[in-house]
Amino acid sequence: MLNPWTLLLSNLKNTNVFNQIRCASQVLPQLSSEKYKVIRKQFGNIQPSDVDYFKTILSEDRVLTDENDVLPFNIDWIKNCRGQSKLVLKPKSTEEVSRILRYCNEKRLAVCPQGGNTGLVGGSVPVFDEIVLSFMLMNKIISLDELSGALVCESGCVLENLDSYVRERNLIMPLDLGAKGSCHIGGNVSTNAGGLRLLRYGNLHGSVLGVEAVKADGTVIDCLKTLKKDNTGYHLKHLFIGSEGTLGVVTKVAIHCPALPKAVSLGFFGVENFENVLRLYASAKSSLGEILSAFEMADNDSISSTVQNLKLPNPISDYPFYVLVETSGSDETHDAEKLTRFLDKEMESGLIIDGTVTSEPAKMQTIWNLRESIAGAGLIDGYVFKYDVSIPLANYYSLVPLLRQKLGSKAIKVYGYGHVGDGNIHINVTVPKYDEEVCSMLEPYIFEEVAKLNGSISAEHGVGFRKPHYIHYSKDVTAIHLMKQLKQLMDPNHILNPYKVLPELT
């Protein structure tokens, strides 16, 4: 049997990241309930009779109770949160999910839905002894309309597998994440994941055509339409997109897949300062227009972290800031001409100091690996405080130098990277180990600063377990009240993903 940590970390696609984080990850993280001082709510306790019942629904090998088997489902991949679940259930159908939830609701047994467990805010792991409902076996592709691009699949399908499937049919998934090799489409939808190409294809509220979901009482809600237009009544699918499994559990997804671009190019550029990053973005929007599919920024500490910790190659020299510009279009000659004009103009203007451009898949992947590995690279240094916020572009990077000044020598590094095209910056603070003093210096300070700028404390990773008591920095009290009313209506016993998203229900 594989070591539990090997199982936990095997979802990391990049071999360098996997090997090095595995070596640094032999100590189990502290229990979330102790670390964050959470009190267990009055849910039922799992009895042997409950386990026996679940074995009448699922085959015995899909009811996990052995401590070593359950451990990987209790810990998030960044070693931030650790639950105490004693039971993992692995359904293969919506009917099985429905029967499980109906029983749990009657017995007031709390449930934690889990997909690929690649989240960064603790939303996909238990806090106490919630039953983990794993969707890893619900991984069937149901249908694909190659004319309209409508794909229907089960929620446990891995994003990269779906992308490979539709690419063979000249389509592309509208979502691309660094965790695509292990994240599930159901988890993507449940957290309204953003990713690298939201600039081009928009967020999942636009791409998702329909969902099937199961309420806490086992009722199956069928909103699995594949139509682009359907204005009959309330758009119920949106209740489940981004609600992180607290209103219902997504079991099937219908999503629109755009046409596969025929010509893709990627530029990686060195830039002198962040003001020039913004100028370059404005120029890219103007010069590249409809073929601009990604515009990513990373500061020097972000890239040097992946280069030094993971031994990944940097194709250009050392610069204060780096920008990735991806173009995707249908005419290689036309697109190349636009990109060349853009490069010539901005090399001459000085916005681009140095850079490289390629359309070779292997070279593009090398560059993307630098960007996609930033999230994991910091874990080699110790503990990482991660913040996923949206800020107006004029102030996009302003928090990073503020935090460097505030923390001083208490932090190993403070760095920022993210999706300039949608205002989403990821701020990482690395320290040797978890430090309550550093945490108190960061929170709620960083959320207060985001609120002053009319930003969002959670841009694309959800609220999860880490941020419910900070949600008021982004949402008005009336909006929070309505959310609580929806929760009470759809999950009156509060068994679905408790301790997540909303502040304490009163």
TrEMBL record:
Main location: other
Catalytically driven reaction(s): (R)-malate + A = oxaloacetate + AH2
Protein localization: Peroxisome
Keywords: FAD, Flavoprotein, Oxidoreductase, Peroxisome
Cofactor: FAD
Gene3D superfamilies reported in the protein's UniProt record: 3.30.465.10, 3.30.70.2190, 3.30.70.2740, Uridine Diphospho-n-acetylenolpyruvylglucosamine Reductase, domain 2 (3.30.43.10), Vanillyl-alcohol Oxidase, Chain A, domain 4 (1.10.45.10)
FAD-binding PCMH-type domain location: 81-260
One Pfam family it belongs to: FAD-oxidase_C
One Gene Ontology term, aspect cellular component: peroxisome
Gene Ontology molecular functions: (R)-2-hydroxyglutarate dehydrogenase activity; FAD binding
InterPro entries to which the protein is assigned, alphabetical: FAD-bd_oxidored_4_C (IPR004113), FAD-bd_PCMH (IPR016166), FAD-bd_PCMH-like_sf (IPR036318), FAD-bd_PCMH_sub1 (IPR016167), FAD-bd_PCMH_sub2 (IPR016169), FAD-linked_Oxase-like_C (IPR016164), FAD-oxidored/transferase_4 (IPR051264), Oxid_FAD_bind_N (IPR006094)
EC number: 1.1.99.39
Record text on subunit structure and interactions: Homodimer.
Annotated function: Catalyzes the oxidation of D-2-hydroxyglutarate (D-2-HG) to alpha-ketoglutarate. Also catalyzes the oxidation of other D-2-hydroxyacids, such as D-malate (D-MAL) and D-lactate (D-LAC). Exhibits high activities towards D-2-HG and D-MAL but a very weak activity towards D-LAC.
Family: Belongs to the FAD-binding oxidoreductase/transferase type 4 family.
Official protein name in the record: D-2-hydroxyglutarate dehydrogenase, mitochondrial
Natural source organism: Papilio xuthus (Asian swallowtail butterfly)
